[in-house]
């Protein structure tokens, strides 16, 4: 995996870049992380009002979660807090956003768009057409990933499981003042985005908008949240399992700020990110 360890950066600290993604000309993007070997990337795309693209297909999987606004892809509307996984080669009749949108997006390779493609074959087993958080379906199994200790204070929703690799994308929602006690390691990359809430951990305190790309077997946690949290997780490289260990330091609500970042991003997180004002 040719991506740096990012644990963590606030998306708010990253600049918007115009035309940073070739398959989304005319839209701005914040690049969260990128694989220099495969071109795979994680980003937030900001579609302006009136944005539109014609029929096309992509040479990469496109997985996304709508943060704000709405978009229409292949005739399906995706509003705030909706999710989809569109496999590579899948033809789309178009993409548009009438009023604009901000969309957390993951591409499995360099997102090259080719016009047309009607009737093109693709792997329909890997398609997740549309899921909405507002359906209030929490069907995830913490125990299957070794996270059964979270079951009493959190809920999980499985968004997708890859039929070949076992990679999983899921949501977790935790209650306010949930506090962990042990540290974890996972044998695969764990990627997450903090959609809502505040989360304190061994490397500092994250606010909504925090992004992490964690390499396999990196020790992390325990975590706690005074607000409750909503997080989107992805495992990269296989199914997620968990090994538990005693922490190097006990949990604290006021941890030292020491995120792990590559040199080009470290200056952006030199200080703790401020808690959003409530009054």
Can you characterise this structure?
By secondary structure, the chain is mainly β. It is built from no helices and 24 strands. It has strands spanning 6-10, 17-18, 28-34, 41-47, 51-53, 56-58, 62-69, 71-73, 76-78, 82-86, 95-97, 101-107, 113-115, 128-132, 154-161, 168-174, 178-179, 183-185, 189-201, 204-207, 210-214, 224-225, 229-236, 243-245. The protein is globular and about 55 Å long. The mean pLDDT is 96. This is DUF4437 domain-containing protein. It comes from Falsiroseomonas algicola. Pfam families: Cupin_7. InterPro entries: ChrR-like_cupin_dom, RmlC-like_jellyroll, RmlC_Cupin_sf.
Q: What percentage of residues falls in helices of 4 or more residues?
A: under 10%
The largest sheet is: 7 strands, antiparallel
The CATH architecture assignment of the largest domain turns out to be Sandwich
The top-level CATH class of the largest domain is: Mainly Beta
The total domain count is 2
Strand segment count: 24
Mean pLDDT over all positions: 96
Low-confidence stretches: none
Overall 3D form: globular
State the CATH topology of the largest domain: Jelly Rolls
In quaternary terms, these chains amount to: single chain
């Amino acid at each position: 995996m040719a991506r740096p360890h990012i644990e963590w950066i606030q998306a708010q600290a990253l600049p918007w870049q115009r035309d940073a993604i070739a398959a989304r000309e005319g839209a701005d993007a914040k690049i969260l992380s990128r694989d220099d070997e495969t071109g795979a990337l994680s980003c937030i795309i900001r579609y302006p009002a009136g944005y539109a693209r014609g029929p096309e297909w992509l040479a990469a999987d496109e997985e996304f979660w709508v943060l704000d606004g709405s978009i229409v892809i292949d005739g399906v509307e995706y509003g705030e807090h909706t999710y989809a996984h569109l496999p590579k080669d899948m033809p789309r009749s178009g993409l548009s956003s009438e009023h604009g949108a901000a969309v957390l997006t993951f591409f499995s390779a360099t997102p090259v768009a080719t016009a047309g493609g009607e009737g093109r074959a693709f792997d329909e087993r890997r398609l997740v057409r549309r899921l909405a958080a507002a359906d209030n379906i929490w069907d995830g199994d913490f125990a299957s990933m070794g996270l059964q200790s979270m079951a009493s204070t959190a809920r999980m929703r499985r968004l997708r499981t890859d039929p070949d690799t076992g990679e999983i994308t899921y949501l977790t929602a935790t209650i306010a003042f949930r506090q962990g006690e042990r540290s974890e390691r996972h044998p695969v990359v764990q990627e997450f985005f903090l959609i809502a809430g505040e989360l304190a951990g061994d490397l500092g305190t994250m606010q909504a908008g925090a992004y992490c790309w964690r390499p396999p077997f990196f020790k992390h946690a325990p975590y706690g949240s005074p607000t409750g949290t909503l997080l989107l997780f992805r495992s990269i490289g296989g199914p997620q399992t968990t090994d538990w260990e005693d922490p190097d330091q006990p949990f604290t609500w006021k941890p030292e700020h020491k995120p792990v970042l590559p040199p080009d991003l470290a200056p952006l997180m030199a200080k703790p990110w401020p808690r959003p004002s409530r009054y």
